[in-house]
Amino acid sequence: MRSPGAGAPHSKESRVNRRRRRTAFLAVAGLTAGLLLTAPQSASAANLIKNPGFETAGTGDMPYCWEKSGWGDNDFTFTTTADAHTGSKAMKVELTRRVEGDRKALITESAACAPVVTPGKQYDLGLWYKTTTPDAAITLFRHDTTSGWQYWTDLRTLDMAGSWTEATVRTPEVPAGTDRISWGVSVYGTGSATTDDYTMDQVPDPVLPPECTGTAEQCANGKWDVLPTQNPVRSMHSVVLHNGKVLLIAGSGNDESMFEAGTFTSAVYDPANGSYKVIPTPKDMFCAGHVQLQDGRVLVMSGNKGYPTADGRVGYQGYKDSYVFDPQTETYSKTNDMNDGHWYPSATILGNGDVISFGGLKEDSTGSVTAELFSEAEQQWQPLWKVNQTWSYWGLYPSMILMQDGRLFYSGSHVFGNNIPGTGSAIYDYDANTTTQVPGLRNKDERDQSASVLLPPAQDQKVLTLGGGNIDSNPEANRLTDIIDLKQPNPSYVAGPPIPQGTVDLGNGPVPQTGNQGKMYVSAVLLPDGKVLETGGALHNRANPVYETSIFDPASETFDPVAVDPEARGYHSSAFLLPDGRVMTTGDNPGNGTWNHDVSVYSPPYLFKGPRPQITSVIDTEWNYGDTQRITVDRPIAKAELIRPAAVTHSSDPNQRFVDLPLSVDGDNVDLNVTSNPNLAPPGWYMLFAVDANGVPSVAKWVHLQGPQALKATDASAHVHDFADAPEGKVVKPGKKRTSQKVSPTISGCDRHYGSVNVCVPTDFPAEVKKTTAARCTWLKTNEYGRLKVNGKDDPLNLDTNRDGIACGKGDPARR
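The line above is the sequence of Galactose oxidase; the predicted structure tokens follow.
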């Protein structure tokens, strides 16, 4: 599953390659002895490139301000050729044999040669080229004032061309801390690329400031609306379909009476008219896993085979069944069974369209240690012997994010109780079948129902983890955020800014949060302007909703508090991006068993900044990796991106990602350059947004990105760069084969000795609640638990002191 690395940052290439015992070439050929034939040419006032046509010789076999770079097992030549577009010289890079790696001619990484850039600005790059290989790309490096030179991104794959052809592309905004860039063309397949006449110009700033079209409050903080029609089902799973509708899955909806009656529900919501259509649902998909397949259908895995017994001796059970939902027919069809039951499984789509799944509870309530693989080619779950196994228990809904080289990053976000042993986050390499611990995640055992998201753009390979708590020990949820840069050779989480505080309802209405009070059950949603909305949450296990919403800016790593969702959004809530750029939130299931059927929709500030750009045409909605796809727009745009539609539950959507599309602009015609790496954008349907210079997005168009058959390199690997290539954490190899992990039947944090199964009396009350019958009964009354029958003879929380079979009944609180 992991594609080989290529084109690592120069400063570490030889070190990394020595570690991997690769046949390597020194990354940079410095300026060595030789004659300087002519005086160095300075960049023109507009063109920021020095020696753009290779006409000035350097002190060696490379022209002035150009250097050799590359790595891997391949045979290559660098030639200053007379076959030029203009003038008398051009640069030819050729691979005659390739096992792995690439070769590239780049602008010299020096203060004298590398163009100066300004953070936040964009630059138009251009060159003329001829190629005999489909495996050539424009590659950028950037100089970070703190960390030095490092790989930035690939901007465009060059189409094969037998005659001189112009290629232009616009960079993303220059990241903070960057003062210079280096770029050129990399060749990563057999054949040659000859280039000449490079250009680089800064994109002019927008002429017009944003125009506020709402109230001052709306323009600054956005606006929430509670929709007039309620969600008809108790849905805790939300999937945005490629027709713009939303699949809302409830199953039994955490309601045991519905389970016993065999009443399982889903609904399809249509944002265009606000309608809901209830869909027949074959099994209890309550707390299943789900992911969108390459063709846009939704794979739903496992679910609830049985609720815990009344006395709590048996916990939740996951069934082996799996289904596919078809958005066109709005029906479910059965696949083959999984090898294990998996209640609360992960679900991550891979670059080849396969789906991998970990964790959850088996049919006997024990933890599953079985990795499951759904084959895109065969459209079925693979037998156990075909799937690499480490026999590791990853917990419930472990957040497994696909990295750019095909490995999986376990972020440390999970559901219920403590984290996995070790540091709490790790890199899982399926091909090597190893797990490497990653350090830095703070309070790893209080990240229960935190949220993790791959920050925009996916090319940057940074992950943000927010908030969390622990339903077993039930402390106050925290404000922690941690950020990891997986481009680093030995990545480690570093502390991010704390989540802003809002108000919390402790039972008598919202009051300001104090101290270090944060939230669990938090939702994080990628926005088309490249920022992240975080919203919802609660202070304790299924209690005390927190009212706070803010927008995180990955560029500045800061939060901006905005308008607050007026509805409680704790356990079993969801938040997700709609194709029109708004965010929809649903659900809330407190411990007393009630359900919030109200639906909220948030209009971010960018919807109040004047007219929206429009994508007036998309030439082709069927896209392949490495394509250049043309759209037309009604006015200038600054960027475009693909956003994978949501498939979210329990604060978890590991497949959510924002993939930058570098631009080539010709008036209203915009060519979009699609990544050649399917691990950055796994195959499937995506929302295509165009965004103007003020951050105002268009309404999305739907495009279908095709799978690995579009890859062109002879070894079927994309042009992939080495990130996280030298982690120093503890490496864990496969353990002994086993059947399962023992898991407590109270894993959900609910003591089943009291009330019905959909009522959650906490196994551990919040720390501020005194351990007395009176204090606990007061807390249950404040949180509207109502009459609670004692199930059986045991009373572990001492709530039935007069032993009349009713917890917190008449006379109970008076006794200690």
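Note on the example: Confidence is low (pLDDT under 50) at residues 1-42. The chain is about 5% helix and 35% strand.
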